[in-house]
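Researcher: Next entry in the queue.
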Amino acid sequence: MSGVKTTPEIKEITKIERIGAHSHIRGLGLDDTLEARAVSQGMVGQKDARRAAGVILKMIQAGQIAGRAILLAGQPGTGKTAIAMGMAKALGEETPFAMMAASELFSLEMSKTEALTQAFRKAIGVRIKEETEIIEGEVVEIEIDRPATTGSAAKTGKVTLKTTEMETIYDLGQKMIESLQKEKVQAGDVIAIDKASGRISKLGRSFARSRDYDAMGPTTKFVQCPEGELQKRKEVVHVVTLHEIDVINSRSQGFLALFAGDTGEIRAEVREQIDGKVAEWREEGKADIVPGVLFIDEVHMLDIECFSFLNRALENDLAPIVVIATNRGITKIRGTNYKSPHGIPIDLLDR
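Model: Structure for this entry, 351 residues:
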């Protein structure tokens, strides 16, 4: 394993949304001054708690808070999980948000500390910047020559692309013809072709064609004809979590393990190597760390070993913001005979 592999395609896992207790929440329902609205983004009531969550959110976005745990305590049904979900939605797609219930740790086929480490690393994102060469222009015409006999002869074709300053004819191979047909590209579309992968993305219709009376739906997007040269260098940004990089590098079929969910225990040396590589990327300016949020529900179910691990993990350089929720009052810390508020050791509560 000479170089650490990161695959941007991981993010394209289809999410199956079901109607659940919190599926209607789209944010914290705050206005610009962080005041809670009465009914907004699926949130009702708990105005003070929502405002406090909004303040923490702003600090997370500004990168001014790290290595801290935030405790949400209250009776069952008061909206602790709802506020955590609202925070996740308000942070946006790019900020990683990992959610787990403390009781899950005891039913997994791996050690408790390994499960907690994986949860921590799911909540830390790496924003990787890459420069790619793209060809961007408006399609003037597409000519595809189909052979008269089916079988051996391959399709050939030409595509004419133009910008405001230049016009060029490109020869097309079999693969490019197939992807052009798959994307249903026609004259008047503005397209971008990634030179490295050959992927074609349709950016929209050109404004020059907006007067054409074709059968166009209301969703048709019109864009300006690109300016300058046809070939451009563009910076592409991928966000992957540290856990995803761990899984891909931990075994030969790691990429498939991500989909199966059976990641198993990941060796410490693999993680150390990845941390070293990520630190190297940060120094070179290739990558940034995006600290996310780890939400642990029913935290009173964790035992003393997990709490001491949490305490140490919060001091790490790469620590996400940990939001913990509990509905217990003064209760026994699991694994000891001591009682403490919320069943959380005093030294962790002090943080």
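Model: The chain is about 25% helix and 30% strand.
Researcher: Noted, moving on.
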